[in-house]
Amino acid sequence: MHPALIAILSLIGAILFVWLVVLRILKMMHPVPIPWRLALILDNALRRRVLSPAKTLKQIGVAEGMKVLELGPGPGFLTIEAAKRLGKEGRLYCLDIEPALIARVKEKTAKAGLNNVAVVVGDGQCSAL
């Protein structure tokens, strides 16, 4: 193997290792699934280019008129596209444990003029069972 390739792969490995250590430390400091400030990096133009919400929802089978639960929507990466696909007869329910993220989703849906989305803060557990 070429020495330059070994150096590049080693550097990538070191960066990934450090990144995982940082994530582990952040997770210990914030006992929620993902800190809301960190979740905001999930909703960016580059990710939309690489992982299109429209393609993802098409593969999942989200269609007009359905009732859909988006469990852990985070900053709403799929939410707007899902609500548009569901149409006026469909309904999208977004449930997240982090109040700041739910507020962000609510803000995004209001800005987009979507009224078929219900957002709820919760942990997804059903204590009635």
Short note summarizing the structure:
With 129 residues, the chain is α/β, with parallel strands linked by helices. It is 51% helix and 12% strand.
What would the keywords be for this entry?
Rossmann fold, 3 strands, single chain, 3-stranded parallel sheet, alpha/beta, 129 residues
Present the secondary structure layout:
Layout: H1 3-29, H2 36-39, H3 45-50, H4 53-60, E1 67-71, H5 79-86, E2 91-96, H6 99-111, E3 117-121
Parallel strand pairs: 1-2, 2-3
General description of the model:
The chain is of the alpha/beta class and 129 residues long. It folds into two domains: 1-31; 34-121, Vaccinia Virus protein VP39 (Rossmann fold, 3-Layer(aba) Sandwich). Helices cover 51% and strands 12% of the residues. It has six helices and three strands; from the N terminus they run ααααβαβαβ. Strands 1-2-3 form a three-stranded parallel β-sheet, covered by helices on one side. Helix 6 (99-111) links the parallel strand 2 and strand 3. The longest helix has 27 residues, at 3-29. The termini are far apart. The mean pLDDT is 88.
Beta-strand percent range: 5-15%
* Number of H- or I-type helical stretches: 6
> Could you tell me the mean pLDDT?
88
Strand tally is: 3
| CATH fold-level label of the largest domain | Rossmann fold
Coarse shape: globular
